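A reminder from the course coordinator: this example appears on the midterm review sheet, so study it carefully.

Given structure:
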């Protein structure tokens, strides 16, 4: 497993005020400064697969603040790992370059995404074979440096 995939992890946040209150601080609770937040929600996502991309610069933290969904990571050797997001105090951290797919959205799913970059479509890799080539090259260059 390369260093990007071994850094994928679930984050768990304490609930304050006897539950029902979560606080998230950039650079403290999550490993980057937050530049952008977006939400994926609505019945239109039920049965759909979102994501299916890798990002050359963006790192992400995803929370299901309501409902549930799954996140699948796939590496350059086709190894898959599935994570379930089903509690508002849990999140997943995805470093840059990790290929991700979000699916199995419940009707009431509200998936909140925090990231360290402004939106830039040019830093997205949307073709898996292109991702595989870039990732293998990066891993090889790092092994040789
Ligand atoms: P896309 O990255 O395909 O979404 P997902 O990863 O959830 O499947 O983006 C869907 C559309 O929204 C696409 O037209 C680009 C646009 N978009 C923005 O304008 N800003 C953003 O921050 C994001 C994530 C997407």
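Designed residues:
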């Amino acid at each position: 497993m390369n260093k990007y995939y071994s850094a994928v992890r679930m984050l768990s946040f304490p609930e304050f005020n006897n539950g029902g209150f979560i606080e998230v601080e950039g650079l403290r609770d999550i490993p980057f400064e937050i530049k952008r937040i977006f939400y994926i929600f609505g019945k239109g996502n039920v049965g759909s697969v979102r994501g299916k991309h890798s990002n050359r610069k963006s790192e992400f933290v995803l929370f299901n603040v309501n409902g549930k969904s799954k996140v699948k990571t796939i590496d350059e050797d086709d190894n898959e790992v599935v994570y379930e997001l089903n509690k508002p105090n849990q999140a997943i951290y995805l470093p840059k370059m990790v290929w991700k797919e979000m699916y199995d959205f419940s009707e009431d799913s509200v998936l909140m995404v925090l990231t360290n970059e402004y939106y830039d479509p040019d830093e997205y890799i949307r073709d898996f074979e292109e991702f595989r080539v870039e990732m293998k090259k990066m891993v090889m260059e790092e092994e040789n440096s």
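The mean pLDDT is 97. Residues 54 and 98 are 5 Å apart (CA to CA).
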